[in-house]
Specification:
Length: 118
């Protein structure tokens, strides 16, 4: 298992203003705008920022780790449970095409562990 990308999450109460800031000021490009605002670096597509609308995620993860393969998500989920870590969002396939779960690390940080299904 290896992490293929780490995705930062930012807070956004005004998604159009956030989109304008990240695209016009920092030069990111919009990769998705349905459900959440996803922005990527044109020079390095694995460098990403996700801005969910307020209240979209409960609990809210601090960042995401893309493991690249749904089987790796299953393996990480099993490993987390075997170690007694707290899974705060159950493993599932989401309608927008990712398999994921949220786990709390030993310091209390909530991480979205995911992989795209296709």
């Amino acid at each position: 298992m290896s992490v293929t990308r780490i995705v930062a999450y930012a807070r956004g109460t005004d998604l159009p203003a956030s989109q304008a800031f990240y695209t016009e000021v920092l030069g990111l490009e919009v990769a998705m705008s349905d459900h959440v605002l996803g922005l990527v670096s044109p020079a390095n597509p694995s460098a990403q920022v996700i801005i969910p609308p307020p209240g979209t995620e409960d609990p809210e993860p601090s960042f995401g780790l893309d493991l690249g393969d749904p089987a790796a998500v299953d393996a990480a989920h099993t490993a987390a449970l075997e170690r007694g870590l707290r899974v705060v969002y159950p493993i599932r396939d989401e309608p927008w095409g990712v398999r994921r779960f949220f786990v709390e690390d030993p310091g209390g940080t909530i991480i979205n562990v995911l992989a795209h299904l296709s």
